[in-house]
Amino acid sequence: MNDQTALITGASSGIGFELARCFARDDYRVVLVARHLDELREAARLLHQEFEEVDIVLLPFDLSLPDSPAKLYAETTLRGLQIDALVNDAGFGETGYFSDTDMDTELAMIQVNVTALVHLTKLYMRDMMDRNVGRILQVGSLSSFTPSPCQAVYAATKAFVLSFAEAVQHELKQQKSAVTMTVLCPPPTDTNFFHVAHAENTRAAKNTASARAVAEEGYDTLMEGGARCLPTMAAKMNFFTSLVLPDSMLATLMNNQLHPVER
Known about the structure:
alpha/beta
């Protein structure tokens, strides 16, 4: 049996759940973090259905609250849980022109997508550095590479994740640390993201990747110590497009993908 523990935020559904499934398959203890306990219990039920012996810890925390990362870290410390792999998957979006979208929603988005990610990384990475071993997976997006009208704040948070991860990766090399950090940049994926982001009636929501396929490729890259994962061929092609087209053209393309279409 594997005696290692993985903590996954946003673990009750979508890519987060599928990543938890990957760890459970490899006999990790999995610490599932999400806002709602009932959804965590359902996720645990599904994991136990497939992996009977997996050790699952459920920790309901709302990462949009500024004190949640510190409380989460304190709780895992109190329980004597050594976190060997940290997955920062929790995040959400909002769709619409910035002048029209809700400010409180976007400030909460920054708290979850950026502030909580940095806070949790700081807390758990310090422990990993002391042990000189550990893995961290930051979930970015293809939006990390492009300006995205109609999801301006969301795309900006994911651009932050990419820049942050790449800078820390370099620092880890300079420090000659065995701790690794990987950034996963999924394409539009079949999760509840589009429902939460009010983007169900967009072109981007009509052609999505499998959450399981995205998670498995991201997990493999994490285990290999890779720096970046662009899961699926479509993601790789879109990334290449972002390298050769000017930002103005990319913004136009993204606007077409994210602006609501006529029913």
